[in-house]
């Protein structure tokens, strides 16, 4: 078979042996929306749910080769990027995106694990901002990632987060979803900022529990909805709903007497 015509999302990211985050989460999420996944692995990590004990980077040429082969083999309708490890991998991924400008690309700018292990080398921030960001349909930073990307302190409130977000948009990014999930308060509010449009606030009740890999899930779900030709705002709303429902399921499971 020359080309698999099922709609696919190409996932570019790292493996997580615990299954809590990374490409395992991406594949589960995309599959739950009814699409298939093809892969370009950027790193192999050794993790439990508490810590990352080893990271093995994949050579940039091998990452680009995986992407090109996945694109040749399948009908790829969106690209989702997560852990990219090094500046050279970021540049290699950007080169393949430049060859495929019509495929919407979603970037979850994974900088570190929740346990604090660095997953993108600090020298790669420049390449991420200048080479990759302008090629993306959407980037999904949390408040810590937003501060790192803009070289600022952690945003103190919504207005501050918006100011930082606008600086990134001015650098050529098309749209930005600022995730407020790790902030405090009874609601979890994200802000969608697109060039030339008013910010859209998307909020959900904050749930008591926590779960790993929510960033991976959200960006993968948005990419899968974009692959289905949903407009950006609808894709983001649907993606948020999917993550909320999964969190709800997990918190109910944790709270159940036989959990
Ligand atoms: N490991 C990999 C390979 C990831 O891609 C990510 C996040 O995208 C993480 C770890 C971090 O996940 P968490 O913040 O849930 O620890």
Describe the structure.
It is a single chain. This protein is an alpha/beta fold. It has a domain at 4-141 and 213-247: 3-Layer(aba) Sandwich (UDP-N-acetylmuramoyl-L-alanine:D-glutamate ligase), CATH 3.40.1190. It contains 8 helices and 9 strands. It has helices at residues 22-32, 60-73, 87-99, 125-132, 143-150, 158-170, 214-227, 232-255, and strands at 4-16, 36-47, 52-57, 74-81, 105-107, 138-139, 175-178, 187-194, 200-205. The strands form 2 sheets. Strands 3-2-1-4-5-6 form a 6-stranded mixed beta sheet, sandwiched between helices. β8 and β9 (200-205) form a beta hairpin. The longest helix is centred in the C-terminal third of the chain and has 24 residues, at 232-255. The termini are far apart. Pyridoxal-5'-phosphate is lined by residues 13-14, 16, 20-22, 45, 82-83, 108, 110, 113-114, 212-213, 215-216. Residues 13-14, 16, 20-22, 45, 82-83, 108, 110, 113-114, 212-213, 215-216 line the site of pyridoxal-5'-phosphate.
By DSSP, the count of extended strands is 9
Would you list the SSEs in sequence order as H and E?
EHEEHEHEHEHHEEEHH
* Whole-angstrom Rg: 17 Å
- For the largest sheet, list the strands in their spatial order: 3-2-1-4-5-6
* pLDDT averaged over residues: 93
CATH superfamily (homologous) name of the domain at 4-141 and 213-247: Ribokinase
User: Can you tell me the residue ranges where pLDDT is under 50 for at least 5 consecutive residues?
Assistant: none
Return the CATH topology of the domain at 4-141 and 213-247. UDP-N-acetylmuramoyl-L-alanine:D-glutamate ligase
| Oligomeric state of the chains present here | single chain
Which bin fits the share of residues in helices? 40-55%
Please indicate the percent range of residues in DSSP E strands (runs of 2 or more). Answer: 15-25%
Largest sheet: 6 strands, mixed
């Amino acid at each position: 078979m020359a080309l698999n015509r099922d709609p696919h999302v190409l996932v570019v990211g790292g493996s997580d042996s615990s299954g809590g985050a990374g490409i395992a989460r991406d594949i589960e999420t995309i599959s739950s929306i009814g699409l298939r996944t093809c892969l370009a692995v950027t790193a192999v990590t050794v993790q439990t749910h508490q810590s990352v004990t080893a990271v093995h980077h994949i050579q940039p040429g091998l990452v680009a080769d995986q992407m090109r082969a996945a694109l040749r083999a399948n009908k790829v309708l969106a690209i989702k990027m997560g852990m990219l490890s090094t500046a050279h991998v970021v540049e290699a991924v950007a080169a393949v995106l430049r060859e495929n400008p019509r495929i919407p690309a979603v970037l979850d700018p994974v900088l570190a694990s929740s346990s604090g292990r660095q997953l993108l080398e600090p020298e790669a921030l420049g390449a991420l901002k200048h080479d990759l960001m302008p090629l993306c349909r959407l980037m999904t930073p949390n408040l810590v990632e937003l501060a790192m990307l803009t070289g600022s302190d952690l945003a103190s409130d919504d207005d501050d987060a918006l100011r930082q977000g606008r600086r990134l948009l001015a650098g050529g990014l098309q749209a930005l979803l600022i995730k407020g999930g790790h902030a405090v308060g009874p609601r979890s509010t994200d802000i969608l900022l697109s060039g030339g449009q008013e910010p859209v606030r998307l909020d959900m009740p904050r749930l008591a529990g926590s779960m790993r890999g929510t960033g991976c899930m959200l960006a993968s779900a948005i990419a899968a909805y974009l692959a289905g030709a949903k407009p950006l705002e609808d894709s983001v709303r649907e993606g948020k709903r999917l993550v909320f429902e999964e969190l709800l399921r997990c918190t109910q499971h944790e709270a159940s007497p036989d959990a």
